[in-house]
Amino acid sequence: MENRRNPRLARERAKKLKEAREILAMLGFVGRQSNDGAGRTLLALLDLKPFQGWSDASAPMRGITPIIKFIAKEHGKPYKPNTRETIRDEAVKYFVEAGMVFLNPDDSSRPITSAKTVYQVEPGALDLFRSYGAATWKRKLVLYLASREHIRRERERVRAISKIPVSLPSGERVHLSPGGQNPLIKLVVEEFCGRFSPAGTVLYVGDAEGKFMHYEVDYLKRLGIVISAPSKMPDVLVHDVRRNWLLLIEAVVSAGAVDSKRRVELKKLFSGSKAGLVFVTAFASREAMRSFLPQISWETEVWVADDPEHLIHFNGERFLGPHPDVGTK
Known about the structure:
This protein is of the alpha+beta class.
């Protein structure tokens, strides 16, 4: 409607979008990576409005929701809230992988799943975009493409330094992305398992960025478990071999405690298990646990990292063991 009332605005919006898509194509982005959504996302990351020239581009730090709001306001394309994943997975993700956009440049330890996650066009790319339409564009494009791989590798090196090393009982070591629940997951694997399942085999460790950091698919099959939707896995999965228990552990920072709904979901997900199911919610401290207490399901356990020797059992019928409805087959 707005475009019909203002044909000049409509023309400028269309022109900017066409130019943004052409730029992405010249940078090697293909298919969805250079479609209308990707073009508008680039314009939002550059804070570029329809009547501005490319020399006016800037590099604000923006999250997905601010990107969507900018596109709706300045480029007349409203997106529904459930399109956040589309913007992230079909545009921003590839910009980051190519080294054109930085992820959380203000805090490299912030997990990608954080509500505070932001993205920013890196300085070399910004300088390139500002030259679009100028006599220096072609020369700068050649130089930028030659240097982009170095930029990407350097950013990966910085993020790798901040990775969290986690030592499994087997002696194997995995590295989790920084931030979020991952420091707590490290404590679960190294502290909880060592105390309450010292002979346990860690079958799965989730990660905020790479969900399946450690995943023993064949071992799970031998236990009678085939997971059709791995995204619904708990944060840590441990088989206590001696007692034939399967410990399903959720590490909670901001959400994800084993409430009655989650317990039913996990029970269904692991319904084929030949091992008895034990449901555990882990918190970093009692203070962190406080607001979740009303949610915790009966017939589950709670472990608090700053009191690592103790468990809280919700019911009192037994201590850290499977219950009749989730016993061994």
